Amino acid sequence: MSAVVHIVDDDESFRTATQRLLRASGYAVETYDSAERLLQRLPDDAGPSCILLDIRIPGLSGPDLQDRLSALGSHLPIIFLTGHADVPTTVKVMKAGADDLLTKPVTKDELIAALERAIARSRAWREKNEQLHSLRSLVDSLTPRERQVFERVARGKMNKEIGRELGATERTIKAHRSNIMDKLQITSAAELVLIAERLGVLVEQPAEIRR
């Protein structure tokens, strides 16, 4: 699947020239003459992609669009373009998570290098998100009692201690642990702890002992 570059710029000649250059370089390209147009056809995170965004455009500005996309939960990397770079704007957009800021006119090599970095980040985020979704699905397959045992094992508690807390025998807890390992497709407590850490389970307290 070709990576998609979404160009947002009110300069038609720039959009046309950049679209031609990027398509010749193997990218799929979508163009928009305003931030509002992009919001109307909001790109998703289904594949590797990024946004090439002019800072100064009529209507909603580039930084304003960045804020709007962030509020909508978009994870598309953004590369800003500007013909008038200034320190406050640069600091603002970079602090807000922009991948890069390029000054027009930009060379082909500079543009392609920035795009490759952004798209690599897009791919990495998507792969990480898919892995987390898969782990979440496995944990969601646990029964309520298995989930209680899972959380306590992740916190380093021994079977006997877990049994006392849950009013169950050590043998029953061992059986639950075995079922948990099978459902999570793992073979060690260390792997279980790693899954709990990645899903943020360890920063929560079990509901029944919460104050």
TrEMBL record:
InterPro entries found in the cross-reference section: CheY-like_superfamily, Sig_transdc_resp-reg_C-effctor, Sig_transdc_resp-reg_receiver, Tscrpt_reg_LuxR_C, WH-like_DNA-bd_sf
Modified residues (4-aspartylphosphate): D54
Record's keyword terms, sorted: DNA-binding, Phosphoprotein, Transcription, Transcription regulation
SMART domains: HTH_LUXR (SM00421), REC (SM00448)
Domain Response regulatory residue range list: 4-119
The keyword Phosphoprotein belongs to this UniProt entry's keyword annotation: yes
Domain HTH luxR-type: 135-200
Recorded GO MF terms: DNA binding
GO terms under biological process: phosphorelay signal transduction system; regulation of DNA-templated transcription
CDD domains to which the protein is assigned, alphabetical: LuxR_C_like, REC_FixJ
UniProt-recorded name of the protein: Response regulator transcription factor
Organism: Microvirga tunisiensis
